[in-house]
Amino acid sequence: MTQSSGTDNAHISLLSTLVIQGYDGDYSKPRADLNHLLGKLEEVAGFSEERFRELVQLADTHHVTVRALRVLEQLAAQERQKRLLEWSADAIETEQRRIGKAVEWLYAIVQALQLSGCPVTVIKSLDHWPDLGSDLDLYTSGAADHVVGVMQEKLHAKLEPRSWGDRLASKWNFEVPGLKELVEIHVQYLGQTGEQKQLAQRVLERCGEATVNGRSFPVAGPDERILISTLQRMYRHFYFRLCDMADMAALLQSGKVDFAELRRGADVGGIWPGVATFLVIVAQYVKQYGGIVSLPQGVIESAYSPDLSVQIKNKFLRVPMRPAAGLYGSQLLNASLQGDFRAMSRLPLLPPLAVSALVAYRLTGSDKGVW
Fold this sequence. Notes:
Helix 1 (3-21) packs across helix 4 (65-78). The protein has a 5-stranded mixed beta sheet with strand order 1-2-5-4-3. Strands 8-10-9 form a 3-stranded antiparallel beta sheet. Strands 6-7 form a two-stranded antiparallel ribbon. The two termini are 28 Å apart. It is globular. It has one domain: 2-Layer Sandwich (Beta Polymerase, domain 2). By secondary structure, the protein is α+β, with helices and mostly antiparallel strands. The protein is built from 16 helices and 10 strands. Strand 9 (311-313) and strand 10 form a beta hairpin.
């Protein structure tokens, strides 16, 4: 293990403790009593300014900057750690400026699509609130040509080059002038190969509403949030960010998840084993850092293993590849049993695409042209 990877691992462990132990329920504000985290405050108080910046950069990578630093800010104020209080407050203010601007743009994009006849739901991006992802993600049932036209004509957006994976997944990325974040729009389908049609329809049919910074947005319902996150983490990226653990833990603790409906939705897409495995991984990780997430026995029994865990590697929380391969095989088998010809024709393209991405990454350091 290199010194830098060791530092990253220590930082991820620190951030996990702050985010999981620093809040009760939602992330509206830290716990009133944070004395159990005074040891973590002392640890960070000993950081150089450079090392603190490294911590903030990693928090940004994991989309937990505001949540983690609010805990440090409150602790620093309590213990009169002036230097750390200033560092935390400045980093929070910088991040909240970015988030505020991005939310206004997201609202304008949603309005433009809706007023142009494209039903749309925000997916993933607002799940991290009060943090925000590095992209703005949406799903729409509108026609692709129409969506591209609206983005270019109404928002003067530039269409980014599409990779092989983008084309299979039926998604388009846009650069909007004045907006730092890319806008990623999934059109009519979900899944890494665009194999999920019925599941995608559920996202619009069962969407809810969230108010953020005074703006109302159509957002994926609780069950669909889990389904979308499972597709992203267990069937595509094979790694987690800390925000995934925090977001899902808060959602599960809220009591808003209908597990019977969640299974119905997952079965439609042939991903119930992946959903169960995803939730078990979240519960195990949260438990490791002092939190509690209770799952129905049926979920635990449906997981690839009840003892799965992630490993910190290369700045992320990596999923073991053996269950990932097994889940892919299960999804393909389910498509065959259900006679889902779209999924049957597309899913077999995933392994060679993944191999191409790996080769491209090793040769060039980037897999952008593939994924």
